Amino acid sequence: MTEKEKLLRGDFYDSRDPELLEMYHRAKSILKDWEGLSSRDGGAKFDLLQKLFGNIGNKVWVEAPFYCDYGKNISIGENTFVNVNAVFLDCNTITIGKNVLIGPNVQIYTATHPLNARERIISQPKPNQAPYLTQAFPVKIGDNCWIGGNSVILPGVEIGENVTVAAGSLVTKNIPDNVLVMGAPAKIVKTL
């Protein structure tokens, strides 16, 4: 089994694997070209996002700067807007529905590590091997959601449809459809 297959299964994987590093470097190159384009050159910017992401719907708008690990593990539905300084750590899949608003400084994490340092750190890694254990779990955001600025979504979380996540929230568990959540950790405060 390849390290990429382990990554997508949620198993521990070596983030310094050559295939994964090549995906990482490819994403960084595309993002550099994308950020270098004028905001007036929407067609060329969208073409580069199509190369970067696994799937992107029509009329998706992503503001610069934007950061991701691999890009290919990201799927964004049509009419979605991603504001400035978004960080999508797409070590596993990040699936975002259509008509989603993602505020500034939103962070979506799929990667995680063992909490105990003795379990997390590899005392004698092989040459070119990462010195720590990493695994990743997918994140899914349903259609018609609004993720407020400075919110953080943790690995393995699924957010239902028509959900509003208040600014500054820390989403640590699954959220059902049609609710407003806020806080750290985010809690349901209202049915919409």
From TrEMBL:
Repeat found in the keyword field: yes
Highest taxon of source: Bacteria
Name this polypeptide is given: Nodulation protein L
The Maltose/galactoside acetyltransferase domain, residue ranges: 4-58
Keywords: Acyltransferase, Repeat, Transferase
SMART domains: Mac (SM01266)
Record's function text: Acetyltransferase implicated in the O-acetylation of Nod factors.
Keyword check for rRNA processing: no
One term of GO molecular function: O-acyltransferase activity
Pfam families in UniProt: Hexapep, Hexapep_2, Mac
Organism: Rhodonellum psychrophilum GCM71 = DSM 17998
Family the UniProt entry places it in: Belongs to the transferase hexapeptide repeat family.
